[in-house]
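Lecture notes, continued. The same structure-token format from the folding unit now serves as the input rather than the output. Read the line below as a description of shape only.
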């Protein structure tokens, strides 16, 4: 069993996603979908922020070493998220503008919400 398959890892990730979702809902966002999976990637949260559809990556890191949670959304991860968003939009077309956000959660539960964290590469 690899570390990615360990049940505690999924439980930890689920709890941090719920923490992020609750925070964003308190800010007025509305949940549209969560844990959307396809071959090329996964979307943690899809939420509506007014007239914008936000694809939100939730990242948790127990320490700030190596740049912390937000820094872990590197160009490769961004491409996977963008591919998953394209998959989602094929199945759920919208006229709304879309953006990519990152919610970073640290070991003490501090939440940092980065709107427009990156743009999809053409």
């Amino acid at each position: 069993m690899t570390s990615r398959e360990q049940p505690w890892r999924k439980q930890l990730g689920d709890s941090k996603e719920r923490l992020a979702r609750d925070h964003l809902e308190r800010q007025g966002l509305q949940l549209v979908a969560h844990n959307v999976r396809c071959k090329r990637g996964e979307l943690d949260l899809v939420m509506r922020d007014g007239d914008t559809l936000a694809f939100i990556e939730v990242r948790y890191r127990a320490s700030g070493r190596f740049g912390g949670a937000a820094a872990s959304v590197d160009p490769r991860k961004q491409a996977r998220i963008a591919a998953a968003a394209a998959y989602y939009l094929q199945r759920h077309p919208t006229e709304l503008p879309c953006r990519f956000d990152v919610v970073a959660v640290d070991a003490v539960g501090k939440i940092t919400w980065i709107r427009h964290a990156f743009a999809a590469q053409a």
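Point for the exam: The mean pLDDT is 86.
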